[in-house]
């Protein structure tokens, strides 16, 4: 008992089950997810108040990136334990980190089985969070079935008070398409019901590629709640930006919120109803740079890592009609005490702003879109001989090619990303042989 006064133990002093805190946080901090707010708090409250629940609470969060799945899981975790997210009774597995190779399925099954049993034995009120379930090797989730089922105890361990949360992009496209069709009929998002989404998600999880495909825990109904995270609208992006700025003690104004919302990408292409990345990149958009024409000033907004607060730095710029933007940026980086702040932003981003200032000094004004347009070169990459371009034009073309590459690059987390791609090189009958493949007696033996 003395030990547990200072060190976290699996008892009521350390496991507080602050259900009202969960609900309040969802109401105040989660935007655009009326179904989540309605379902999650009540589910946790019902489970934790039951002295002898019939089974563990199992919730599966579904939705596209940036819709709030991890955010909600963290809210639940934070309010269940006195130590919050630092509690040793919170256990998180990330599919692409912990289970990256489909060929190691049997090894992963053994590891996962031991992991659940060991931690549940240490505390019967543990929280298990599985992220990127859509990237789990197919069949791995079946190991979990005994621990999620209606068993009083397994080999002396009671699993019924545990909570399992699965986070997945599975059926994210189905949710998005449902929302698009719903909006096309002139209906509000608040009219979408949990009953409409439940069958959509359960069938999607079972039939679509990923960790739940043909899974026993889905087939036997062991997932208690399929929680849909709807795509976020522009107004929700602005709410996320406002919350982020308030967290960093930054003065709010509608102009900044509008500007951040303008930088996000939206879909469908014509209607632009929903943010393509939800609120995921909003915190990055808060770090911005801009210019003030009189006097010529570069303005940077940046975050201090130690405090998380947003700071503003104004850098006076000395200009004349012959100022070269690239040389100006280089000299500031080398000679100025502002250099460490300038390095937080892209080189071309700062140069474009300098170009706006220089143009203004010369008696004209140009906006950022016009600057970018002037940098663009109309080149047919398939037919144009790039060797004949002058250096300035070639650099512009390279910049365009880099932008196209970044835009089309498929990264982990994207729907088209494929993990653990295996290529069979054993059958090389059709491969063209090269000189180096041949046993040539005429070759110099030194090579």
UniProtKB/TrEMBL annotation:
Gene Ontology cellular component annotations, sorted alphabetically: endoplasmic reticulum lumen
GO molecular function terms attached to this record: ATP binding; ATP hydrolysis activity
Transmembrane spans: none
Keywords: ATP-binding, Endoplasmic reticulum, Glycoprotein, Nucleotide-binding, Signal
Endoplasmic reticulum found in the keyword field: yes
Keyword Glycoprotein in record: yes
Pfam families xref list: CEP19, TOR1A_C, Torsin
Protein's recorded name: Torsin-1B
Organism, scientific name: Hydra vulgaris (Hydra)
Species classification: Eukaryota, Metazoa, Cnidaria, Hydrozoa, Hydroidolina
Gene it is expressed from: TOR1B
């Amino acid at each position: 008992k003395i030990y547990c006064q200072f060190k976290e133990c699996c008892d009521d002093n350390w496991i507080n089950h602050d259900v009202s805190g969960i609900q309040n946080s969802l109401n105040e901090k989660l935007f655009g997810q009326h179904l989540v707010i309605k379902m999650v708090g009540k589910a946790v409250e019902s489970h934790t108040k039951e002295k002898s629940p019939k089974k563990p609470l199992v919730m599966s969060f579904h939705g596209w990136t940036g819709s709030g799945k991890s955010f909600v899981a963290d809210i639940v975790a934070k309010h269940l334990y006195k130590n919050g997210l630092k509690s040793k009774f919170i256990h998180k597995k990330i599919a692409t980190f912990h289970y990256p190779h489909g060929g190691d399925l049997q090894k992963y099954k053994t590891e996962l089985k031991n992991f659940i049993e060991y931690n549940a034995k240490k505390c019967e009120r543990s929280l298990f969070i599985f992220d990127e379930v859509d990237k789990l090797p197919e069949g791995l989730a079946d190991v979990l079935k005994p621990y999620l089922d209606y068993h009083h105890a397994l080999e002396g361990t009671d699993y019924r008070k545990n909570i399992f949360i699965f986070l997945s992009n599975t059926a994210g496209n189905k949710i998005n398409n449902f929302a698009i069709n719903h909006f096309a009929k002139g209906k509000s998002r608040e009219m979408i019901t949990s009953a409409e989404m439940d069958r959509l998600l359960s069938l999607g999880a079972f039939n679509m590629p990923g960790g739940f495909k043909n899974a026993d825990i889905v087939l036997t109904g062991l997932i208690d709640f399929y929680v849909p995270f709807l795509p976020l609208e522009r107004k929700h992006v602005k709410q996320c930006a406002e919350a982020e700025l308030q967290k960093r003690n930054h003065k709010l104004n509608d102009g900044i919120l509008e500007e951040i919302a303008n930088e996000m990408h939206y879909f469908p292409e014509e209607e632009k109803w929903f943010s393509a990345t939800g609120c995921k990149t909003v915190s990055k958009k808060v770090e911005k740079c801009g210019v003030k024409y009189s006097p010529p000033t570069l303005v940077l907004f940046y975050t201090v890592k130690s405090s998380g607060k947003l700071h503003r730095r104004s850098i006076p710029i000395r200009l004349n009609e012959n100022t070269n933007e690239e040389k100006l940026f280089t000299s500031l980086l080398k000679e100025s005490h502002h250099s460490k702040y300038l390095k937080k932003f892209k080189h071309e981003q700062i140069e474009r702003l300098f170009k706006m200032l220089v143009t203004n000094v010369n008696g004209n004004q140009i906006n950022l879109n016009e600057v970018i347009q002037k940098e663009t070169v109309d080149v047919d990459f398939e037919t144009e001989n790039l060797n004949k371009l002058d250096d300035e034009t070639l650099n512009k073309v390279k910049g365009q090619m880099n932008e196209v590459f970044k835009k089309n690059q498929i990264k982990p987390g994207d729907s088209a990303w494929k993990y653990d791609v295996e290529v069979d090189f054993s059958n090389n009958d059709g491969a063209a042989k090269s000189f180096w493949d041949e046993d040539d007696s005429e070759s110099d033996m030194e090579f």
